[in-house]
Design a protein that fits this description.
The chain is α/β, with parallel strands linked by helices. The chain has one domain: Rossmann fold, CATH 3.40.50.720. The strands form 3 sheets. A 7-stranded parallel β-sheet has the order 2-1-3-4-5-9-12, sandwiched between helices. A 3-stranded mixed β-sheet has the order 6-7-11. β4, α4 and β5 form a beta-alpha-beta unit. α3 packs parallel to α4. The longest helix has 22 residues. The protein is globular. The N and C termini lie far apart (about 45 Å). Bound molecules: NADP nicotinamide-adenine-dinucleotide phosphate (NAP). NADP nicotinamide-adenine-dinucleotide phosphate binds next to β4.
């Protein structure tokens, strides 16, 4: 039997990264998992050369917690440059990186930073496969947290085809094993089984938990990406892979009060 590849996971402790590590281990890969908790900083490059020693493929699931466009752009462009440079030195074959569906026209905030991320990645020396994902089921809780003021949570109007981080992890590992040629599909996509709105998902989540929080959907005219969020630009393309569980199934399986 051919020897399994050695695969490094950057951002291995995150919402997505922990599932990527689990899927790789389940499939028998030799895994190097790291984040700053292990002394490896993908933004400064500290510890990256050591972490990538002997690695064949890097899956990058790292992120900054900041939604500020400048902070996030600095993080993602520096990480892209560092991964290419350290990856080349280590003899890495290619990078597999996750991005977001529908961000081509993004003008602001985190999504614009992810667009800059993609562009920087594609300038580098190593082959790169970028998987664009829909918003994760796990993001709904984060958005409720950001928007909560007392007993009300303000949630940005957004049409999205929410997907489980575990399903994105499986798709990333599939791509690591079997890359899709860019001339066939430049940006493969992974999304959940059906369109939803972020506000309806948020309401379903707080109801399942029994939280006394009222969800109010907002439409922020100061946000240059508002129209894209609201008009379905973030929904998957026809070529997307759609994978369950649905948000409702995921809530039923993961929220104790909903079981
Ligand atoms: N969340 C979504 O709905 C969604 C949707 C589509 C695509 N994506 C993409 O999926 C990726 C992962 O997102 P996520 O929500 O899973 O992120 P997350 O939960 O915030 O996890 C981020 C990970 O990156 C690590 N990290 C942060 N700064 C680092 C640094 N300087 N050096 C090394 N590691 C660092 C964190 O660990 P430490 O703090 O220990 O370093 C953590 O392991 C991102 O590229 C994001 O754009 C997310």
């Amino acid at each position: 039997m051919a020897q399994q590849k050695k695969i490094a996971v950057a951002g291995a402790t995150g919402r997505l990264g922990r599932h990527v590590v689990d899927v790789l281990v389940e499939r028998g890969y030799d895994v190097v998992a790291f984040s700053r908790a292990d002394g490896v900083d993908i933004e400064t490059g500290v510890g990256l050369d050591e972490a990538l020693t002997g690695v064949d493929i890097v899956i990058d699931a790292s992120s900054t917690p900041s939604a500020d466009q400048q902070v996030a752009t600095e993080f993602f462009t520096a990480s892209a440059r560092n991964l290419h440079a350290a990856g080349e030195r280590a003899g890495v074959e290619r990078l597999v990186v996750v991005s977001i569906i529908g961000i081509d026209g993004s003008l602001a905030g985190y999504n614009a930073a992810k667009l800059a991320h993609e562009q920087e990645l594609l300038k580098g020396a190593l082959p790169v496969q970028i998987l664009r994902a829909a918003q994760f089921h796990e993001l709904v809780e984060v958005m409720v947290g950001w928007g909560t003021q007392g007993s009300v949570a303000y949630v940005q109007g957004m049409r999205t085809q929410l997907v489980a981080a575990r399903s994105v992890a499986q798709a990333l590992v599939d791509l690591a094993a079997n890359p899709i040629p860019a001339e066939d599909i430049p940006f493969p996509e992974i999304a959940g089984p059906q369109p939803e709105t972020m506000a309806a998902a948020a309401a379903a989540l707080v109801a399942a938990r029994g939280d006394v929080v009222r969800i109010i959907e907002t439409s922020d005219s100061a946000n240059p990406d508002r129209e894209q969020f609201e008009n379905g630009t973030l929904l998957p393309s026809p070529h997307a892979t759609l994978a369950g569980p649905s948000f409702a199934e995921w809530v039923a399986a993961t929220v104790p009060a909903a079981r």
